[in-house]
C-alpha cells in the first residue's frame, strides 16, 4: 500500500494528527502495534486539561498547552466527548509553598493563562470543605478541566475513519527503509506500507523509531505514574482538581473527580527500566496514599475499586520534540510527548497536519465532517428517551453491566465501531469499569463479542496478542 | 401503572422463599411478582453445582441447582408471577419500582417490596493487589460461571487467594477440571472456611493451604505468568525476605462478598456499615416502611438454608404489611446492639408489635477460643452460650424464645457481647 502520510502510533497524539490530516485530500493511514487505539499513555493518565502555568515559557510544551487548552472545549463538542471545566487548585501548606504558588502565577501570566488567582484559606475552606485544615493558600486556575483521555482518542479515531483515514492494527514497526520517494515501513509480521511522509507518534518508543530511520538522536526515559480509582461517591469529596505544589519530579499527587463521577488519586513519579513496565507497586501505592491523605484526610482505601499505572515518555531534551527532522526529509518526529500531552494533542494535531499539507501541497477535503456522535448510553438518558430507544432497538433494554447500567445495544455498537477485545468494550462503554470490575458482566460481554464477531470465546482476548481469557472449550452447549 | 401486593427484587433462594411465603400469607388478592435480571430463577445457586446445600432445611445433601429447583417448582405450581431478564433500575420510598427489559420500561407500584438482590464479589482492585494487569485474573464467581455453566477451561495452573468456603470449593473444582492448583493463599492465621471443606477440598487433593500469607504481586504481560507471595506478621504486614515466586497462568480471587445495595440507597434505606446491608428489625423491615430485605443483600450468609429461613420470615411480614401497615409505625423499636468482640448482629432492632420468637445472627470480629456469648437486657443476662471456638468466617445464631421475650424490659437495649472464660 502507498500512502501520502503514515502515522506510527494510535495514541491521542497520533489520532489527533490523523483526524486533522483528513481535512485534506490525502491518502493517509496509521499503523499501531496493539489491537486497539489508546493502548499506551493515552489510556493511563490523569485526564486533566491543564491551564498552562506549569511549562517554562518559550517551550513547545507551553505553546501547545495553551493552544490546546483553548481548542479543547470546541473539539470535545464536535466529537461528543465529556469535558468539564471544573477548575484546578494547587494547594500550599507553608510560606515556602506559597512562594512557589506565586512563581506559578507569574509564569502562568507570562504563558498567557487567564483567570489565575491566589486564594486564601477562607475561600479554600468554603469552596473545598473536605481539604486539610492545615492548608494556607491555593492557586486557582478556572480554565483547567477534566476529560476522558481514552474516549477522546477513540472519538478522534472514529471521526478520522469516517473521514476516510485507515488504521492498521497489530502492525509493529520494526524496520524502516527509504528510497527516493518513499519510506518503506515494515512490521514484525512482514507487512509493508510505503509512504511519502512518515510521522512518528510512537510514544515511549519514539526514540527507537527515530533511530530506525537514522534521524535525530534523542532518548526517551520511561517515567511511571501509579493511580487509584475510587468508587463513585454519593457526593464528591472535591469539586476541583486538587494538585500539590510541584517538585522537580513533576506536578505531584492530585485528587480529582473523573468525568464519570469516580475519584482519581495519583500519580507518583519514578523512572523505570522498561518502557512496558506498567505494573503497580506496594511502595508506589503507599507513597501516593500517604501524600494524598495529607491534603484530603477523609480519603479511605475502602473506596478503592482499581489501581493502574501509566508511562510518561520523558525525553532527554526536556521539551516536546515536534517537527521535520533536520537531516531526514519528510520524517516528522512528534516525540517526548509527556504531560501536558493530552491537553496539547489537539493543537499538535493541527500544527503537524499543516506541515504535512504544505509539504504535499494538499487540497482541502470538501467532504470533511468534524462531527462524531457518541454511542447512546442507557445511563445518560431520561426514561422517555429510554423507552423510545428500546422500541427501536430491544437490546437497549437488556442491561449487561449492572454497576454502570450498560445495555447490550451499547456493546454491539462499540463492536460496530471497532472494539475487538474485552478492554476495547470496557473503554468504549464502561462495561466492567464499575465497582464489581466485570465480576458479573465479563461472561456476558464475551457472549456478545463472540456472537457479533462470529468467533469462539477461546479466541477472545483482554487486549490482544496472548491475553486470552479462556484456554479451552470443554463441551458444546 | 401495574399494581402488586408484594414485589420481590431478585430471584435467588432468598427471593424465591420470600415470594412463596408472601403468597401463602396473603388473603384475597394474592398478586406477588418476582423480578430477576438473569435468564433463570435460582440466583447464584445455578452455578454452584457442588453438593452441600439443604442439609439443615431438607435434611439431605443437594447441589445448588437442585436446591433452587425445589423452590422454583413451587413458584410455578402456585403460578406466582415472575419476570426474568428484567432489571430493576430504581425503587422509591413510595414503593414504586422501575424495571427494564427488551420490551421497554415497566413501572410497578407495590404495597410492600422485598429486597433480595444478593451480593457481589470483592475484587483484586478492592484489596489493592499490586503488579501487572494481564488476562487470567478472575473472581471465584466468574470462574465458576465459565467452568460450570459455559464449559470452558480458564487456565492450566492456578493460585487461589482467600480460603473461605468459596475459595476452597473452587480449589477442588479447578482440580477436577484438570487445572493444577498450586496453593490457596490466606492472609489470616486461620481459614474462614468450614473444617469439612478444608478436608474435602484441599487435603484430599494435596493442595497446600498457606495461612498468614499474602499475594504481594501479580506478574505477566499478556497472560498471568506467576505471582509473588510473602509471609505476614500478626499485623498482617509483609515479613521482608519471605517472598516466593509461584509460576501460574491463573489467579482466582475469593476475598469476600459485599451486599448489593445500590437500589436500597436509591430508596433512602439506612445501611449498617458493618454488614453492608440495611438495618432491619425482627420482621426484616428496613428503615423505609414496607420495604423488607433478606438473604445476602442483608448480610453475607454461609449457608443457603439460613437464607431460606430468613427470607420466609421477611416474606411473611411483607404480606402482613400489605394488610396491616399500621403495625409497622415508627417508635416501636428497641435496639439490638453488638458489643465486645461481636462484629455485627442481625436484626439490629426488635419491633414491639411483633414480640415473637426469632433468631439472632451474628459474627465475631476475631478468632476466639473458649468464650461465652451473652445476651443481656437492662443489666440482666438472659442467655449465656459457651463456645470452644469462634471465627469471623462462621455465622453464629442464637434463638430468642418466647420465654426470653417475656422477660424483656422494653425501655432498654438488647446487648449481644462476648467474654473470654
Ligand atoms: C501518569 C501520566 C499522567 C499524565 N497526565 C496528563 C494530564 O493530566 N494531562 C495531560 O495533558 N497529559 C497527561 N499525560 C500525558 C499524556 O498522557 C500523553 O502526553 C499522551 O497520552 C501521549 O500520547 P501519545 O499518542 O504520544 O502516546 P501513546 O498514547 O503512548 O501512544 C503511542 C502509541 O504508539 C504505539 N507504538 C509504539 N511503538 C510502536 C511500533 N514500533 N509500531 C507501531 N506502534 C507503536 C503504542 O502501542 C501506542 O499506542 C500524562 C501521562 C502519564 C503517563
Ligand atoms: C461458590 C459458592 C459456594 C457456595 N456453597 C454453598 C454450600 O455448599 N452450601 C450452602 O448452603 N450455601 C453455599 N453458598 C451460599 C449460597 O449460595 C448463598 O448464600 C445464596 O445463594 C444467597 O441467596 P440470595 O438469594 O440472597 O442471593 P443470590 O443467589 O445472589 O440471588 C440474588 C438474585 O438477585 C438478582 N438481582 C440482583 N439485583 C437485581 C436487580 N436490580 N433487578 C433484578 N434482579 C436482581 C440476581 O440476578 C440474583 O439472581 C455458596 C455460594 C457460592 C458463591
From TrEMBL, chain A:
BFD-like [2Fe-2S]-binding domain mapped to chain residues: 399-450
Pfam families linked to this entry: DAO, Fer2_BFD
Annotated FAD dependent oxidoreductase domain residues: 4-354
Cross-referenced InterPro entries: BFD-like_2Fe2S-bd_dom, BFD-like_2Fe2S-bd_dom_sf, FAD-dep_OxRdtase, FAD/NAD-bd_sf, G3P_Oxidase/Oxidoreductase
PANTHER family in alphabetical order: GLYCEROL 3-PHOSPHATE OXIDASE, GLYCEROL-3-PHOSPHATE DEHYDROGENASE
Protein name as it appears in the record: FAD dependent oxidoreductase
Taxonomic source organism: Caldicellulosiruptor owensensis (strain ATCC 700167 / DSM 13100 / OL)
TrEMBL record, chain B:
Lineage: superkingdom: Bacteria
Pfam entry (one): Pyr_redox_2
GO molecular function: oxidoreductase activity
Transmembrane parts of this sequence: none
Entry keyword Oxidoreductase: yes
Protein name, UniProt field: FAD-dependent pyridine nucleotide-disulfide oxidoreductase
Domain FAD/NAD(P)-binding per the UniProt entry, residue ranges: 4-314
UniProt entry keywords in alphabetical sequence: Oxidoreductase
SUPFAM superfamilies listed in its UniProt record: FAD/NAD(P)-binding domain
